[in-house]
Amino acid sequence: MELASNNPNRKSWLDIPEGSDFPIQNLPFGILSKDGGPKKVGVAIGEYALDVAALYDYGYLDLNMFERKHFQNDSLNDLISLGKEKNRALRERISHLLSTETDELKSRTNRDEFLVKIDRLDMHMPVQIGDYTDFYSSEEHARNVGTMFRDPAKALLPNWKHLPVAYHGRSSSIIPSGQDIHRPKGQTRPNDQEPPVFGPTQRLDIELEMAFITYPGKPIGQSISTSEAEDHIYGMVMFNDWSARDMQKWEYVPLGPFLAKNFASSISLWVVTMDALDPFKTQGPNQDPKVLPYLEYEGEKNYDINLDVFLKPEGGDDNHICRSNYKYMYWNMAQQLAHHTCNGCPINAGDMMASGTISGPDENSFGSMLELAWMGTKPIQLSDGTERKFLKDHDTITMKAHCEKDGVHIGFGEVTTKILPAI
């Protein structure tokens, strides 16, 4: 189904800067407030945010389809709970109102009640995350890690190409872009011949990821097929899954990640809908061996999303350290959701499922410091003359993501986090 909102020729009557992440073809959703006022649903358009609650109050939306609580709210969850059809209708209506095809909104003299510069607003966590799952779906990343820690000939464990490996994480420590984190503490074993010690991690790392947010699923006991999956995925955010590699190495056997992962994960503030991303679908990698029937799918299920990582030392400049792409994912979102629910596990509106570290085929496209500096043997050289094997206190990491096609640039904004000393 081709959506009018995705027409690359559609123009807005608003002045949108060249190369903006938020053209009329995007219209991502978030939660905003102004001057300490109530939290509301907003939509990004160029340098502005559209107050969707104000649209509702002035009768620009279908009053039989929505209630005010859907738009004056501290999260998107109630809106997401309405499902795909109503959320699609909302985005289509907003796109029309902001387009040159009508002057319904343009002609109002009180447009400042609807549109406010984003830099004058406070942005908040877009969703209240009930459950969070982290996948491990980039073959290049899995091979790199397996090569470092195991026999390179057995880099992938026997199950990896048969199912989307994942673990259930901790949603309470998922934080918005702009919130600083403290270096975590825990047990490590620096010398395999000595007892473990307790203290701040010495190997703090990033993980370049994307995450999708779910619509309501099915009742417990029922599964979602790959052909149904897209009806249960609302949109995507950037996701930096911070990791403490020395803690992870010591604790992960036999049950997997714990304290090395659950201290913080940072997400971007605007949720880009799957409808906006639809034009950027692409073919995924060839899956060999053949997957089991419940993981088979038809059509293009991967997405061509460019991913960039920047490292800024205290008082220094941003250093571009990684360029990857979400299209490299071996296991796509439809397969991830199908596997997640194949045993009858229910999902809820606002659940978050992260991709796992996204690494590409060459060294510049590796999505973690562990890989970029190859476990410390190839330090990253920064513009101020220093180097990094892992991250230092007061470093700032910024991740950006965007799609580009037919002259349309769809962006996610950024997710930025500064590292503070351990407390």
What is the SS-derived class?
Answer: alpha+beta
pLDDT < 50 stretches: none
Shape: globular
User: Between the first and last Cα atoms, what is the distance in angstroms?
Assistant: 52 Å
* CATH architecture name of the largest domain: Alpha-Beta Complex
What is the assigned CATH homologous superfamily of the largest domain? Fumarylacetoacetase-like, C-terminal domain
Helix content: 10-25%
CATH class of the largest domain: Alpha Beta
Stated plainly, the CATH topology of the largest domain is called: Fumarylacetoacetate hydrolase, domain 2
Rg computed from alpha carbons, rounded to a whole number of angstroms: 22 Å
How much beta, percentage-wise? 25-35%
The description of the largest β-sheet is:
8 strands, mixed
The total domain count is 2
Count of discrete alpha- or pi-helical segments spanning 4 or more residues = 8
Please tell me the overall pLDDT. 97
Q: How would you portray this structure in words?
A:
This protein is α+β, with helices and mostly antiparallel strands. The protein folds into 2 domains: 121 residues, Fumarylacetoacetase, N-terminal domain (SH3 type barrels, Roll), CATH 2.30.30; 289 residues, Alpha-Beta Complex (Fumarylacetoacetate hydrolase, domain 2). The protein is built from 8 helices and 26 strands. Strands 6, 7, 8, 13, 14, 16, 17 and 22 form an 8-stranded mixed sheet that branches. A 5-stranded antiparallel sheet has the order 4-3-2-1-5. Strand 1 and strand 2 form a beta hairpin. The longest helix has 15 residues.
